[in-house]
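Sample intake sheet
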Amino acid sequence: MKYDNFFFSADDLATSCRFYQDVLDLPVKFDFSESGMVAFRVSEEEAAIILKERKKFPNMTPAVWIEVDDVRAKYAALQGRNIRFLSEPFRIRTGWAVEFFDPSGSRLGFVDYRE
């Protein structure tokens, strides 16, 4: 497993984007602002900071996603282990994901790049 992405909410997507781009000098990795998301590359690694606009994602809380080989298999293997999943695995543009909370309420997720 390895880190995949770090998600943060943005009250005003344009203002937050200017901060990450102009103040922190992070390059844009992808811009799905029409869907309420913009990602910023932190290094040459795959992991990025992804801003999610609170207007489009009102229940957004910061989250860390971890890349695995197969989200659906990982989800099945973890059933019955006292993990509070937010949903069953779901499709994303690039594969599959599933989110859950740790015992303290921190939001985590698994992601894969399987079609």
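Comment: The longest helix spans residues 13-23. The helical segments are 13-23, 71-78.
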